């Protein structure tokens, strides 16, 4: 199934039904009075998080969703039928954003969580509602209100405990294959991984965690090189980052330089995400002589000025992967326990999580704005401002200005 993590849709809640104007007409009953019923409320539109879904592909081609309109009121004080609710199912981890205001309407992070995205219109009133002591036969009704209409942007961020960072061919997919039952594609060329992959790592019988593998980053990814940095958003909700570095690159590039590239791109995307707990994992140790391990590790650690945990592994031969998995499980358990016992730590983590979400949202919005400008033939926001505020008067001596816009 194709992986889609961003879509734009339009939702339209049902309009309310109109009120009815009717009078009671029965044999031997004169001046029966009003008996027009109210209309029905329009159907609302909800989104619900479904743990059985892992992509937004269902909304790639069907983009408009209209809920049912409420029925009009009837005679004999009959109220119109309420419009049926519409429920749109999305994967857990979906963020719903109002495209017009960029306001986050809600974040569906738990299975079964329900979110109202468009309210149905209020019903109209029948003429019975307007009866009074001075107006015994009212000929007044009210129409139903319009239902909400919204343009929404849906963004999916996978939910994982651990996220993998690294250059293409650093061994991220091989690592996730070696520690879990996931089988992402592995090959000897860059950008084998094109979509995020999730794997469940079982440490003991009742202990496990989820690890996410995203496409590799290269230098300049923040400027659009390679597959760009949009996939970094999938690491926003992880608890721990593993920075995988190839100790023996086939192209004989510098391992410390490669490690530094990832750190720089991570900081450009979100400085707060770079502050997330991160472990350095040096992969492919089986490709170099054992006596060279210490020297290569020191070279990378010194370049990054690294003070955190360092692991030397070989994902393909599973050397060191079991100990790494157990240490990750222990870290996650201690982290959860500390959140419960230490309110200050919990508050600091919540603030960090919010900062990461805000910075990731701003970065993604900037990328979307830049893409929109490119489509209209404008290179940057600065160029657009020059067109508006510059000195290009239509009545200058060169005659009228003609602007060509590339479609």
Rg value: 30 Å
CATH level 1 class label of the largest domain: Alpha Beta
Overall strand count:
14
Pick out the low-confidence regions. Answer: 384-407
CATH-assigned fold name of the largest domain: Rossmann fold
Overall CATH architecture of the largest domain: 3-Layer(aba) Sandwich
CATH superfamily of the largest domain: P-loop containing nucleotide triphosphate hydrolases
**H/E order of the elements?**
EEEEEEEEEHEEEHHEHEHHH
Strand order of the largest sheet: 10-11-9-12-13-14
Helix content: 25-40%
Count of discrete structural domains: 2
Helical stretch tally: 7
The backbone outline, from C-alpha atoms, is: elongated
- How far is the first residue's CA from the last residue's CA? 32 Å
User: Pairing-aware structural class of the strands and helices?
Assistant: alpha/beta
| Multimeric state | single chain
| Strand-residue proportion | 15-25%
Mean pLDDT over the full residue set: 83
Largest sheet properties: 6 strands, mixed
Describe the 3D structure:
It is a single chain. With 407 residues, the chain is α/β, with parallel strands linked by helices. Strands 10-11-9-12-13-14 form a 6-stranded mixed sheet, with helices on both faces. It contains 7 helices and 14 strands. The chain has helices spanning 172-179, 255-269, 271-274, 293-304, 321-341, 343-375, 381-389, and strands spanning 6-12, 45-50, 64-66, 86-91, 94-98, 104-108, 114-118, 149-156, 162-165, 197-204, 207-213, 240-246, 278-283, 310-312. The chain is 25% helix and 20% strand. Strand 10 and strand 11 (207-213) form a beta hairpin. It is elongated and about 110 Å long. It folds into 2 domains: 1-156, Spo0b-associated Gtp-binding Protein, Chain: A, CATH 2.70.210.12; 162-368, 3-Layer(aba) Sandwich (Rossmann fold), CATH 3.40.50.300. Residues 384-407 have low confidence and may be disordered.
